[in-house]
Structures are given as structure tokens and as C-alpha cells.
Input
Amino acid sequence: MRLKPVPARQGLAWVREGFRNFFRQPLGYTAIFSVVGVAVLLLLQIPLVGAFAALALMPAATLGFMAAGRAQRDGKLVHPGQLLQPWRDPAVRSALLRLGVVYAIAAYVSAILISLFDGDAFETTFETLAKGEAGGEALQSGAFQFSLLLRLGLASLMSLVFWHAPALVAWNHQPLAKALFASTLACWRALGAYALMGAAWFGVLMLFMTLAQIFFVLIGNPQGVFLAAIPAGLMFSTAFYASLFATYADSFETEAAAPIDN
Output
């Protein structure tokens, strides 16, 4: 398995691919997103271990979306059953469980580091905004800006390490450490594409918010933008996950020919 060269402009192609995939089979992708969301909510109700289990589920959920993208490429329907397909192989199931545990631990370590260095500035700022107290000043404070950069930096670092790992352990049968290293290397070599992808998604969100605000102000209902943001956010999130297989296929020369069920 070799890494492909990925030009920076490919980041824009991934965003287009996400929307294209979503609008071709919106019900299938929405169903997968809904199943994952319900599973996470149910796990969060379990005392003590629920939050850890929900985090550990994320790599498998990512693989489900990637499997859906590969199925769509092969002319098949996208459906929630693709979330379960990797679990039928005992070796893959074991690898995904180990990967999920490592991911959850990394998320907890990141949360601890954030709490140590930002002094709860992020939560305090949003509490201030919720109360309507000096929102602009809170957002411009150095403590909030540092907290935001710290969170973005740690989230980006985790993304580099875990982005391709679910597919590498499931489809290419790589050991966990090798999959994490290969994912990090592939993302690092395509850093320009991922940066452009992130900027494009940010631009899409900002464009939507701007147009929505203008529209609802014109019809005399400025609060309506918050209601519109909920379904739009779900759609954008699902379209993002619908693009994940493209990032994998464009980064690696070959992939295991594991079948995907209809």
C-alpha cells in the first residue's frame, strides 16, 4: 500500500464530493447519521462508562460512513446496515474495539490538558453569552481566544492520527500502531488539502449563516435563523461524513477488496 500525492486543491473536491454523495442518497446518509446519534445518546445515559463508550464508538461510526461512501461508489444503496458490516469479522471487531478505546483515552487526555491550561475560559464565555452579559468583550478576550486555539489544535492533532485509522485496520488489516502512523503520515503529506477542506467547510457555514440572517431579517423574523440552523447543521454534518471515503481513496494507492453488503 502506497501513499498517493494529494494536491491542495483536492480539499475543495472533497467538499464537493460530500455534498454530491449526500444529495444522491440523502435518506441513506441521514439514516446512518440518525442511528449513530441515537446510539450516542443512549450510551450517554449509562452512568460512569457511558461517555467513554460513546467516544469509543466514534472510529466505528466513521468506518460506517466510509463503507457507505465505498458502497455508493460501487453503485449500491447507502443504508444503516453498513455500520454493522465490519463487526461481522472477529479480527476486525477486535481491532475496532482497541482503536475505539485508544481514541476515547486520547479524547480524555485532550480534555484534561484543556482544563489544565485554559481555566474553563471556554465554558465561562458561553455562560456569559447565554446570560446576555458583554458577549462581544467575552469573545474577544485573550483567555477565550487561547482556549479556542488550544481546542482547535488538539482536535486537529487527533484528526491527523485517527482520520484514516478505522479503514486501515478494517480494510487493510494493519496493526493498530501501524494504522495510526500511516494515518498521521497520510494526513501530514496532504496537509494543504485538509487545510483547504477545513477552510471550505468553514466558508460554507459562514455563507449559510449570512444568507439565513439576511433572509429572516427581511421577512421580519430574525430569531428564525436559529431554527434554520438545526436542520442545516445536521445536513452539513452528514455531508461532511459522506466525504470521508473520498479522502481515504485519494490518499492510498490500494485498498483491501472487502465486500460491502447491499
Summary: The two ends are 27 Å apart (CA to CA). The CA atoms of residues 66 and 244 lie 6 Å apart. Residues 90-118 form the longest helix (29 residues).
